[in-house]
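This part of the workshop introduces the protein records we will be handling. To make this concrete, we reproduce a full record directly below:
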Amino acid sequence: MGLASAQPPAVRITDDLRARLAKHNAGEVPHTSKFGPWRIRTYFAFDDAARAFAFERYLKSGSGRAFAKNHF
């Protein structure tokens, strides 16, 4: 999930995208509560958890951040 606000996009894995976004916007996540409101800019769905974690790891790497900046 890519969350957008005044801060750089966040890359996270979740089983329930709507619930996670609602928690962020309700201020229930201390780290992100001061940067809201949040909105979904981009998301990817995987049916294989291993691929989802590998893609998350890639997007958090230097080349993955460059890829995301150029394509999302």
Summary: The CA atoms of residues 2 and 8 lie 9 Å apart. The longest strand covers residues 39-42.
